[in-house]
Input
Amino acid sequence: MESSSTLRRQAVAETLQRVRQTIAERPMDRPTLDRVLDTLKQLAARRELWNEADYPAPAPDEHQARYLIDQGDDQSIALYLNVMRPGKRIPPHDHTTWACIAAVEGEECNTLYRRLDDGTQPGRAKLEEAERHIVGPGNGIALLADDIHSVRIDGDRPIRHLHLYGRALETLTGRTAFDLEAETCRIMDIGVKTRRAEER
Output
């Protein structure tokens, strides 16, 4: 019988191959990104691959553990597993690359924003809420490079979600974080340190 780590490696490799084929054949637009998300949701549905034993929740006094699952040699098409506790908040931000999020277990509230200013005044930005999406098992959300969203974790137990990016988070030095009330923006840091996934 194959180990969970072997099954996971196979499933991840097959998923990323399909993603690379999809984006190689089509322009990176919303229909293409929806296809990528559908592929990621199939991987997220295999809950046994993303268990607590292999990917522990963060310590009780922490809100997030981010595990690097796979990335290309050039740090492209990077896949992470985020394990986040209730109370975790990520302020409005962009990614500067496309991103897809698919739920393994638990729900996160994603709020999408519309930028109202023209971006010409450094450090200033005005946003308004456009829509909300609850990302739970069986669904997900797809974001283009300049889409802006925030994340909130409610509930009473940690969530597990797969995050797939067009480039590794560690290379995204130009992401912007937004302060809604102050109507300001700044370069966003990576946040919690990424943990390397240890296959067992």
In short: Helices lie at 4-25, 30-44. The longest strand covers residues 76-84.
